[in-house]
């Protein structure tokens, strides 16, 4: 596997009983980039992330994260990553700062208080640091959740549908956060059902459908899969939604 790719899978498979979730997933994510793994519910996005994060074992194929094989060097993989799931894993009884200090101490990071203060400032939460998280908006909770995932400065971040259930303003807050992380050189694998989210955030987009990657490229490359439409002599470029539906078909559920 190439050392230029921080995340790489070859022929990854996973089944639950007779149900085949992953049917040979080939995926690669270059260092310091954002890859959006796009697919409808049940496509296998979360299963793939759990395998990469060492929370599940694959039935077949290989996967490496930051140069470490997920099957044989799971501890090294876990030391290289952080995972933020679909719902913010924050303690509502604690304040924002207390949540960060707790995680820093659990990870045995030196000077937990200073680390917490730095992350609060980085994510625009300093003014709310002393408030209980129960009083935070959805966007604030998600930003705190992502801040907690960055304690210890992991080079790889998995974001599994990070804006599920958020209002439009909170989604924009999370988008700004992801852009900032990418700008700092962190490698991000983002799973999402939202086409506009993939368009806004990803350097590359991979479409997972029925357990396989059926398209992988930049937004411009994917758009070239469909010819431009002309309406009253005005050229209309295809949207990512046009590309997605043309590839997976119109009969299945939309992402």
CA radius of gyration is: 19 Å
What is the level-2 CATH architecture name? 3-Layer(aba) Sandwich
How many structural domains? 1
Quick one: CATH class?
Alpha Beta
Relevant CATH superfamily: P-loop containing nucleotide triphosphate hydrolases
**Widest sheet, order of strands:** 6-7-8-3-9-10
Number of helices: 9
Relative strand content = 25-35%
| Helical residues, percent | 25-40%
Largest β sheet strand count, sense and barrel closure: 6 strands, mixed
What general outline do the C-alpha atoms trace? globular
Spans of 5+ residues with little confidence (pLDDT < 50)? Answer: none
Distance between the termini: 31 Å
Mean pLDDT reading: 90
Q: What's the CATH topology label?
A: Rossmann fold
- Kindly report the oligomeric state of this protein: single chain
Structural class: alpha/beta
Number of strands: 12
Helix and strand element order: EEEHEEHEHHHEHEHEEHEEH
Description:
- The chain has 255 residues and is an alpha/beta fold.
- It is 34% helix and 27% strand.
- The strands form 3 sheets. A 6-stranded mixed β-sheet has the order 6-7-8-3-9-10, with helices on both faces.
- Helix 3 packs across helix 4 and helix 5 runs parallel beside helix 6.
- The two termini are 31 Å apart.
Structure summary:
This protein has helices at 45-52, 74-80, 96-106, 112-122, 138-149, 168-183, 195-201, 219-223, 240-248; strands at residues 5-16, 19-30, 34-38, 60-65, 68-69, 81-84, 156-160, 187-192, 204-209, 212-217, 229-231, 234-236. It has 255 residues and is of the alpha/beta class.
